[in-house]
Amino acid sequence: MAISRESEGGKWVLMTTAQTPTNIAVIKYWGKRDEALILPVNDSISVTLDPSHLCTITTVAVSPDFEKDRMWLNRKEISLSGARYQNCLREIRSRANDVEDKEKGIKIAKKDWEKLHVHIDSYNNFPTAAGLASSAAGFACLVFALANLMNVKEDHSQLSAIARQGSGSACRSLYGGFVKWSMGKEKDGSDSLAIQLADEKHWDDLVIIIAVVSSRQKETSSTSGMRETVETSLLLQHRAKEVVPKRVLAMEEAIQNRDFVSFAQLTCNDSNQFHAVCLDTSPPIFYMNDTSHRIISLVEKWNHSEGEPQVAYTFDAGPNSVLIARNRKTAVSLLQRLLFQFPPNPETELNSYVLGDKTILQDA
Ligand code: ADP
Ligand code: DP6
Ligand code: CO
């Protein structure tokens, strides 16, 4: 690993490791009102996945031997010169405190953090930049690990406002369960942060299955895609002002009451409207592919034949499908249907299924 190699023969190195899950939005964030601070045009709501499945693991280290800040992502060195990394590093450094490791005899005074450099080694255990929210897990983990290393005392909601400056969706990965990113009103973004709506135990009947339709890197990143949408889509204005505010209230109520019928309808409608907004962008952005559309049809037909929703689907900025089953029994049936219609096969596009939740296969 990069970090241990760098510290060989040096004075000392202090390091810490964090693991952070990804999150999938059920009411989507798409569009910024402030690009630099990453302030959204609407509130969003997500569910945080179980960290044992899709997660980022980040080790951060500090040593007087390090000559500059450096970062490795998935074992390759990347540049930290971008504004997003710089903003996160600056915000955390400015909140650093004294750190003492008595065993190693290391003492770092608050003022020393401005001069010391860090090395960051980050690994995503799932496809990066493929529409499974690697930027969310990645920046949440980076901010959390740096905050631990530098003994930052801020609570999770304040850390979420820092992670937001790395990637908007990252602010929601600081909490488990159901999380709302409140868009905020302040110009400086101080009130644009994450709030936990319900913890991971609140609705533990739900089972999440992710169909990895393609692990390929998407052609249009979320950042540039939503910029083009803000510049060209009229539908986005209607969505942000008229549709999402009402949907967010309805979704909060559905989550509080564990009302699966409303939850599923809102989730599917919001995913479809987000992709409609992408189509309304000029030139149009296609994140879903034919397999994604066939998965939607499978779920819609099944839900219709049962008389009410059994499964909700949602797609982020990529073709991969996140399916939320109302309970374990439904999840087993869903998996059987998927395996029958879309057998995992390296020759086909649909290559694997991942559980977003740890509950299903043990008891099924
Ligand atoms: P995704 O759908 O995977 O979130 P995005 O286009 O939103 O795709 O973001 C991908 C970008 O997020 C990567 O190119 C990289 O800059 C950043 N990123 C991904 N993983 C990490 C990580 N572990 N640590 C820091 N940044 C990351
Ligand atoms: C479709 O958070 O990746 O996943 O803020 O520019 O880094 P940046 O974008 P990002 O966008 C996520 C968009 C989405 C919906 C969502 O997660 O709410
Ligand atoms: Co992203």
Automatic annotation (TrEMBL):
The chain positions of domain Diphosphomevalonate decarboxylase-like N-terminal read 21-194
Which GO biological process entries does UniProt record here?
isopentenyl diphosphate biosynthetic process, mevalonate pathway; sterol biosynthetic process
Where does it mainly reside?
other
In alphabetical order, the GO MF annotations are: ATP binding; diphosphomevalonate decarboxylase activity
User: What sequence ranges are listed for the domain Mvd1 C-terminal?
Assistant: 208-364
Lyase in keyword set: yes
- Reaction catalysed by this chain? (R)-5-diphosphomevalonate + ATP = isopentenyl diphosphate + ADP + phosphate + CO2
Q: What is its EC number?
A: 4.1.1.33
Pfam short name (any one): MDD_C
Q: Which SUPFAM superfamilies match?
A: GHMP Kinase, C-terminal domain, Ribosomal protein S5 domain 2-like
Kindly state which keywords UniProt assigns to this record, in alphabetical order: ATP-binding, Lipid biosynthesis, Lipid metabolism, Lyase, Nucleotide-binding, Peroxisome, Steroid biosynthesis, Steroid metabolism, Sterol biosynthesis, Sterol metabolism
Q: Does the keyword Transcription regulation apply?
A: no
Quick one: a GO cellular component term? peroxisome
Give its localization.
Answer: Peroxisome
User: What is the uppermost EC class here?
Assistant: lyase
Q: Give the family from UniProt.
A: Belongs to the diphosphomevalonate decarboxylase family.
The record's annotation in NCBIfam families points to: mevDPdecarb
Function, please? Performs the first committed step in the biosynthesis of isoprene-containing compounds such as sterols and terpenoids.
Protein name from the UniProt record = Diphosphomevalonate decarboxylase
List the source organism: Cucurbita moschata (Winter crookneck squash)
Annotated gene: LOC111458820
